[in-house]
């Protein structure tokens, strides 16, 4: 008979260290498995269970001794009281043994006998896991329970009050900054640059830009916004002509026929330069100069062509593709990520950066609105409830299977021991109560029987 099958004090059993296997014969497959490692708290619970077993077994022994002495006293003519004591002790033994059997049958076979419906936890472990999973799924993961629980929590108002606190908003901002830095650190620049470059290029190639440019140019001309650009060009042209007058005259003289006298070429060059300088000066100083009107008409016509003329639009698109295909442009597009990344990292690390200040301010503003705006609270809670209900309804089987699969993977013997370590002490109180209640019930029955003359 296995000593463990008798609920006697375990004083003669060595404590088995489930982590090392020292002092016992625990199989190597079970040793070291995280689910069955007995912690210091578990060992303390097991010692408490053994102490309660000793107490319950001692009480059973005491009742048995009282029964023997009462029967002996009854046979020796000690008086009627012996019968009452014997009846109470006898019923107490019955109650103690019945509860001992019930408690023991939960974890092992009493006395090692193959009695049906015993060793319930080791033999029914998998069924218990399935039942536990079904219980959790039906009572904790149903849409109605999830919605009711979330509604009772009042997440919107609580979250709003929490975020409205500057310290909490700063904490969330710091966590977001840390997460952002981590994400940017994990991402490889080459991969991101390739994605960004491809996205920008593909977007630019797929979108026709001529109509948009035409509409913008049309609005600029209508508002007179191009006048400043024309003024700037005229000023720069005048200044250049003043500074490079000799170059202009040399260019005119160099283009003259070889048979003309040199002084004639010089006079022609001076005349051309002066007329050109006069023209630019007048255009610069006269807002109503005819050349300015010609520029306005040209830009207006060009804006219309960009929007409606097929040939112009095709030429603009061809020019756009040629520009995008140039290596220099692709390098600029690819390098945009490096500049953006550096800017974001610097802003995330600086507690006083504009980015972090705006995030903090936005979080506090959102928190203040959430704390007072019932409609916003209802909308947020509706989103959260909808998301969680979707998760529990879609993945409830996977969630509950985590319970059933985990329980199924446990070793039956060690599972039984671990559960017994947690609830065994309370179960031993059942044995003690059974002894006391049985004795009182036996005494009552014997008393009633005597009173009725049985």
UniProtKB/TrEMBL annotation:
Source organism superkingdom: Bacteria
Keyword Protein biosynthesis: no
Keywords: Membrane, Transmembrane, Transmembrane helix
Residues annotated as transmembrane: 55-73, 85-107, 429-448
Signal peptide: none
One matching Pfam family: DUF445
InterPro entries recorded: DUF445
Disordered: annotated segments: 1-28
Protein name: Membrane protein
């Amino acid at each position: 008979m296995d000593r463990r099958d008798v609920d006697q004090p375990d004083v003669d059993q060595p404590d088995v260290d489930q982590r090392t296997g020292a002092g016992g014969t625990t199989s190597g497959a079970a040793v070291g498995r995280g689910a069955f490692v007995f912690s210091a708290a578990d060992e303390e619970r097991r010692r408490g269970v053994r102490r309660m077993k000793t107490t319950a077994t001692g009480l059973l022994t005491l009742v048995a001794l009282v029964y023997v002495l009462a029967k002996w006293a009854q046979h020796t003519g000690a008086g009627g009281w012996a019968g009452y004591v014997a009846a109470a002790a006898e019923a107490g033994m019955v109650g103690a043994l019945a509860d001992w059997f019930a408690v023991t049958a939960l974890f092992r076979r009493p006395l090692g006998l193959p009695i049906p419906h015993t060793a319930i936890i080791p033999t029914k472990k998998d069924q218990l896991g399935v039942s536990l999973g079904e219980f959790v799924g039906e009572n904790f993961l149903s849409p109605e329970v999830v919605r009711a629980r979330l509604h009772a929590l009042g997440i919107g108002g609580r979250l709003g009050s929490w975020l409205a606190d500057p310290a909490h908003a700063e904490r969330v901002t710091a966590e977001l900054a840390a997460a952002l830095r981590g994400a940017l650190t994990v991402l490889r620049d080459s991969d991101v640059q390739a994605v960004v470059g491809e996205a920008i290029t593909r977007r630019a190639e797929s979108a026709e830009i001529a109509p948009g440019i035409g509409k913008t140019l049309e609005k600029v001309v209508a508002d007179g916004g191009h006048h400043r650009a024309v003024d700037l060009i005229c000023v720069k042209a005048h200044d250049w002509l003043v500074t490079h007058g000799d170059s202009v005259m040399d260019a005119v003289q160099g283009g003259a026929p070889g048979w003309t006298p040199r002084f004639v070429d010089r006079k022609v060059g001076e005349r051309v330069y002066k007329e050109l300088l006069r023209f630019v000066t007048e255009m610069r100083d006269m807002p109503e100069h005819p050349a300015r009107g010609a520029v306005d008409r040209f830009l207006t016509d060009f804006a219309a062509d960009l929007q409606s003329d097929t040939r112009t639009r095709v030429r603009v698109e061809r020019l756009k593709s040629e520009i995008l295909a140039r290596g220099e442009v692709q390098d600029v597009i690819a390098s945009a990520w490096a500049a953006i990344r550096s800017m974001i990292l610097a802003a995330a690390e600086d507690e006083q950066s504009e980015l972090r200040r705006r995030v903090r301010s936005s979080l506090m503003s959102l928190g203040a609105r959430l704390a007072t705006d019932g409609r916003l609270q209802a909308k947020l809670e509706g989103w959260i409830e909808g998301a969680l209900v979707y998760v529990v309804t879609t993945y409830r089987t996977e969630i509950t299977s985590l319970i059933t699969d985990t329980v199924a993977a446990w070793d039956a013997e060690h599972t039984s021991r671990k559960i017994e370590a947690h609830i065994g002490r309370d179960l031993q109180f059942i044995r003690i109560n059974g002894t006391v209640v049985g004795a009182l019930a036996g005494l009552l029955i014997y008393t009633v029987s005597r009173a009725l003359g049985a």
